[in-house]
Amino acid sequence: MGYTAIVDYGVGNLKSVSNAMAYIGQNTLITGDAKELERAAAIILPGVGAFPDAADKLRASGLDKALLAQVGRKPILGICLGMQLLFDRGEEGRSCEGLGLISGCIKRIQTDLKLPHIGWNSLELQNNSPLFRGLDNGTYVYFVHSFCGRATREEDVIARTQYGTSVVAAVARNGVYGCQFHPEKSGEAGLHILKNFGELIQ
Hints:
The protein contains six helices and 14 strands. The chain has helices at 14-23, 34-39, 51-61, 63-68, 81-84, 187-198; strands at residues 4-7, 28-31, 42-45, 76-79, 87-90, 96-97, 102-108, 117-122, 124-125, 140-145, 147-151, 157-162, 166-173, 176-179. The strands form three sheets. It has an eight-stranded mixed sheet with strand order 2-1-3-4-14-13-12-9. Strands 6-5-7-11 form a four-stranded mixed sheet, with helices on one face. A two-stranded antiparallel ribbon has the order 8-10. The protein has one domain: Class I glutamine amidotransferase (GATase) domain (Rossmann fold, 3-Layer(aba) Sandwich). It is of the alpha/beta class.
Protein backbone atom coordinates (compact mmCIF):
# COMPACT_ATOMS: atom_id res chain seq x y z
CA MET A 1 0.00 0.00 0.00
CA GLY A 2 1.20 3.53 -0.77
CA TYR A 3 1.29 6.45 1.62
CA THR A 4 -1.06 9.32 2.38
CA ALA A 5 0.59 12.71 1.93
CA ILE A 6 -0.25 15.22 4.69
CA VAL A 7 0.25 18.63 3.10
CA ASP A 8 2.68 20.86 4.98
CA TYR A 9 2.15 24.45 3.86
CA GLY A 10 2.96 26.12 7.16
CA VAL A 11 -0.58 25.91 8.58
CA GLY A 12 -1.87 22.75 10.17
CA ASN A 13 -2.17 20.21 12.90
CA LEU A 14 0.21 17.86 11.12
CA LYS A 15 1.52 15.58 13.84
CA SER A 16 -1.82 14.71 15.41
CA VAL A 17 -3.23 13.77 11.99
CA SER A 18 -0.14 11.68 11.24
CA ASN A 19 -0.33 9.97 14.65
CA ALA A 20 -4.01 9.12 14.18
CA MET A 21 -3.33 7.64 10.75
CA ALA A 22 -0.41 5.62 12.13
CA TYR A 23 -2.64 4.29 14.91
CA ILE A 24 -4.99 2.73 12.33
CA GLY A 25 -2.08 1.35 10.30
CA GLN A 26 -1.97 3.93 7.53
CA ASN A 27 1.40 5.06 6.17
CA THR A 28 1.77 8.84 5.96
CA LEU A 29 4.32 11.40 4.84
CA ILE A 30 4.23 15.01 6.03
CA THR A 31 5.46 16.93 3.00
CA GLY A 32 5.60 20.26 1.23
CA ASP A 33 6.95 18.65 -1.96
CA ALA A 34 4.62 18.71 -4.97
CA LYS A 35 6.23 15.54 -6.35
CA GLU A 36 5.32 13.66 -3.18
CA LEU A 37 1.68 14.67 -3.64
CA GLU A 38 1.85 13.18 -7.12
CA ARG A 39 3.37 9.93 -5.82
CA ALA A 40 0.98 9.60 -2.87
CA ALA A 41 -1.98 7.23 -2.86
CA ALA A 42 -4.13 9.81 -1.03
CA ILE A 43 -3.82 13.36 0.28
CA ILE A 44 -4.90 15.07 3.50
CA LEU A 45 -5.05 18.87 3.64
CA PRO A 46 -5.08 19.96 7.30
CA GLY A 47 -5.35 23.52 8.55
CA VAL A 48 -5.80 25.72 11.59
CA GLY A 49 -6.06 29.50 11.74
CA ALA A 50 -7.54 32.10 9.40
CA PHE A 51 -8.70 31.38 5.84
CA PRO A 52 -6.83 34.23 4.07
CA ASP A 53 -3.49 33.43 5.71
CA ALA A 54 -3.80 29.74 4.87
CA ALA A 55 -4.90 30.41 1.28
CA ASP A 56 -1.98 32.80 0.79
CA LYS A 57 0.53 30.28 2.16
CA LEU A 58 -0.91 27.46 0.06
CA ARG A 59 -0.57 29.55 -3.10
CA ALA A 60 2.87 30.89 -2.18
CA SER A 61 4.10 27.32 -1.79
CA GLY A 62 2.68 26.29 -5.17
CA LEU A 63 0.96 23.39 -3.44
CA ASP A 64 -2.47 24.64 -4.53
CA LYS A 65 -1.67 23.73 -8.14
CA ALA A 66 -0.06 20.45 -7.08
CA LEU A 67 -3.17 19.54 -5.10
CA LEU A 68 -5.58 20.50 -7.89
CA ALA A 69 -3.59 18.34 -10.31
CA GLN A 70 -4.41 15.27 -8.21
CA VAL A 71 -8.18 15.78 -8.07
CA GLY A 72 -9.92 12.77 -9.58
CA ARG A 73 -6.73 10.71 -9.42
CA LYS A 74 -6.76 9.89 -5.71
CA PRO A 75 -8.91 10.59 -2.64
CA ILE A 76 -8.35 13.96 -0.96
CA LEU A 77 -9.51 14.94 2.53
CA GLY A 78 -9.60 18.48 3.91
CA ILE A 79 -9.77 18.82 7.71
CA CYS A 80 -11.16 21.91 9.52
CA LEU A 81 -9.61 24.92 7.75
CA GLY A 82 -8.41 22.44 5.12
CA MET A 83 -12.06 21.69 4.36
CA GLN A 84 -12.88 25.38 4.16
CA LEU A 85 -10.12 25.88 1.59
CA LEU A 86 -11.92 23.41 -0.69
CA PHE A 87 -14.70 25.98 -1.23
CA ASP A 88 -14.79 28.72 -3.87
CA ARG A 89 -13.97 31.50 -1.43
CA GLY A 90 -13.84 32.57 2.19
CA GLU A 91 -15.19 35.70 3.86
CA GLU A 92 -13.02 35.66 7.00
CA GLY A 93 -11.49 39.12 7.42
CA ARG A 94 -11.40 39.72 3.68
CA SER A 95 -12.82 37.95 0.66
CA CYS A 96 -10.31 35.40 -0.54
CA GLU A 97 -10.39 32.68 -3.20
CA GLY A 98 -10.29 29.05 -2.20
CA LEU A 99 -9.52 25.98 -4.31
CA GLY A 100 -12.94 25.92 -5.99
CA LEU A 101 -13.53 22.19 -5.50
CA ILE A 102 -16.77 22.64 -3.54
CA SER A 103 -19.21 25.23 -4.83
CA GLY A 104 -20.02 27.81 -2.15
CA CYS A 105 -18.37 30.10 0.37
CA ILE A 106 -17.13 30.20 3.96
CA LYS A 107 -18.93 32.59 6.31
CA ARG A 108 -19.11 33.22 10.04
CA ILE A 109 -21.60 30.95 11.80
CA GLN A 110 -24.85 32.86 12.29
CA THR A 111 -25.72 31.81 15.82
CA ASP A 112 -26.55 33.31 19.21
CA LEU A 113 -24.27 30.71 20.83
CA LYS A 114 -20.69 31.45 21.83
CA LEU A 115 -18.02 31.47 19.13
CA PRO A 116 -15.72 29.81 18.46
CA HIS A 117 -17.75 26.65 18.54
CA ILE A 118 -15.58 24.30 20.59
CA GLY A 119 -16.67 20.85 21.64
CA TRP A 120 -18.49 17.66 20.74
CA ASN A 121 -21.54 17.76 18.48
CA SER A 122 -23.57 15.05 16.80
CA LEU A 123 -23.61 14.49 13.05
CA GLU A 124 -26.74 14.43 10.90
CA LEU A 125 -25.59 12.17 8.07
CA GLN A 126 -26.97 12.59 4.55
CA ASN A 127 -26.29 11.57 0.95
CA ASN A 128 -24.85 8.18 1.97
CA SER A 129 -21.11 8.88 1.84
CA PRO A 130 -18.49 6.10 2.11
CA LEU A 131 -16.62 8.39 4.52
CA PHE A 132 -19.23 7.57 7.18
CA ARG A 133 -19.77 3.89 6.35
CA GLY A 134 -20.50 1.93 9.52
CA LEU A 135 -21.31 5.01 11.63
CA ASP A 136 -24.71 5.78 13.09
CA ASN A 137 -26.61 9.00 12.60
CA GLY A 138 -26.00 11.07 15.72
CA THR A 139 -22.33 10.09 16.08
CA TYR A 140 -20.42 12.71 18.08
CA VAL A 141 -17.25 14.39 16.77
CA TYR A 142 -15.06 17.28 17.93
CA PHE A 143 -15.30 20.81 16.47
CA VAL A 144 -13.21 23.98 16.85
CA HIS A 145 -14.35 26.79 14.49
CA SER A 146 -16.14 30.11 14.08
CA PHE A 147 -16.69 29.91 10.30
CA CYS A 148 -18.46 27.28 8.24
CA GLY A 149 -19.21 26.33 4.67
CA ARG A 150 -22.34 27.35 2.83
CA ALA A 151 -22.57 24.90 -0.03
CA THR A 152 -24.32 25.86 -3.25
CA ARG A 153 -25.27 22.23 -3.91
CA GLU A 154 -26.92 20.32 -1.09
CA GLU A 155 -25.83 17.07 -2.76
CA ASP A 156 -22.25 18.02 -1.85
CA VAL A 157 -23.14 18.04 1.87
CA ILE A 158 -22.68 14.65 3.56
CA ALA A 159 -23.20 15.74 7.18
CA ARG A 160 -24.58 18.65 9.17
CA THR A 161 -24.58 19.52 12.85
CA GLN A 162 -26.60 21.92 14.98
CA TYR A 163 -25.05 24.88 16.77
CA GLY A 164 -27.94 27.29 17.18
CA THR A 165 -28.33 26.86 13.42
CA SER A 166 -27.67 24.13 10.87
CA VAL A 167 -23.94 23.95 10.14
CA VAL A 168 -22.24 22.06 7.31
CA ALA A 169 -20.06 19.44 9.02
CA ALA A 170 -18.75 17.50 6.01
CA VAL A 171 -18.76 17.68 2.21
CA ALA A 172 -17.83 15.47 -0.72
CA ARG A 173 -17.55 15.76 -4.48
CA ASN A 174 -15.58 13.86 -7.13
CA GLY A 175 -13.36 12.03 -4.66
CA VAL A 176 -12.69 15.18 -2.63
CA TYR A 177 -13.91 15.08 0.98
CA GLY A 178 -13.95 17.66 3.74
CA CYS A 179 -14.61 17.48 7.50
CA GLN A 180 -15.20 20.71 9.41
CA PHE A 181 -14.60 18.74 12.60
CA HIS A 182 -11.31 17.10 13.62
CA PRO A 183 -11.47 13.32 13.06
CA GLU A 184 -8.00 12.98 14.60
CA LYS A 185 -9.43 14.39 17.87
CA SER A 186 -12.78 12.59 17.72
CA GLY A 187 -11.96 9.32 19.46
CA GLU A 188 -13.08 6.01 18.00
CA ALA A 189 -15.57 7.65 15.64
CA GLY A 190 -12.85 9.85 14.17
CA LEU A 191 -10.49 6.92 13.73
CA HIS A 192 -13.29 5.05 11.98
CA ILE A 193 -13.74 7.96 9.57
CA LEU A 194 -10.00 8.08 8.83
CA LYS A 195 -10.02 4.31 8.27
CA ASN A 196 -12.92 4.71 5.83
CA PHE A 197 -10.92 7.38 4.02
CA GLY A 198 -7.93 5.04 3.81
CA GLU A 199 -10.15 2.35 2.29
CA LEU A 200 -10.99 4.70 -0.61
CA ILE A 201 -7.43 4.24 -1.93
CA GLN A 202 -7.50 2.21 -5.14
